[in-house]
């Protein structure tokens, strides 16, 4: 389903109005703002989730600890 700004652009294109620069600019800014807000929400949702750490293999300490 096309967005409202996209529908408005198509309506302007076929209405005979030749100066579309401000309408297209406004519509593109609206779409960009919506996308940025959606991205912000996605980042915020995952912000405090702990990252999964891969399990590391524990190796024994093989030093002689100063004893010969």
Question: Descriptors for this entry?
Answer:
single chain; 68 residues; mainly alpha; 2 helices; 54% helix; rod-shaped
Give a short overview.
The protein has 68 residues and is mainly alpha-helical.
Describe the protein's topology.
Blueprint lengths: L3 H10 L7 H27 L21
Explain what the structure shows.
This protein is an all-alpha fold and 68 residues long. The protein has a domain at 4-45. It contains 2 helices and no strands. Helix 1 packs antiparallel against helix 2 (21-47). The longest helix is centred in the middle third of the chain and has 27 residues, at 21-47. The chain is rod-shaped.
- What is the helix content? 40-55%
**In percent terms, what proportion of residues is strand?**
under 5%
What do the pLDDT scores average to? 76
Q: Please provide the ordered H/E string of secondary-structure elements.
A: HH
Based on CA atoms alone, the radius of gyration comes out at 28 Å
Class per helix and strand makeup: mainly alpha
What are the low-pLDDT stretches, counting only 5+ consecutive residues below 50? none
Report the biggest beta sheet as strand number plus sense, adding barrel if it closes: none
Distance between the amino and carboxyl termini: 77 Å
**What is the tally of helical segments?**
2
Number of strands: 0
What coarse outline follows from CA principal-axis ratios?
Answer: rod-shaped
């Amino acid at each position: 389903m096309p967005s409202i700004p996209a529908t408005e652009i198509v309506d302007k294109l076929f209405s005979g109005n030749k100066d579309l620069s401000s309408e297209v600019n406004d519509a593109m800014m609206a779409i960009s703002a919506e996308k940025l807000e959606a991205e912000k929400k996605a980042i915020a949702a995952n912000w405090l989730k702990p990252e999964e750490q891969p399990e590391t293999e524990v190796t024994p300490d093989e030093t002689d600890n100063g004893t010969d």
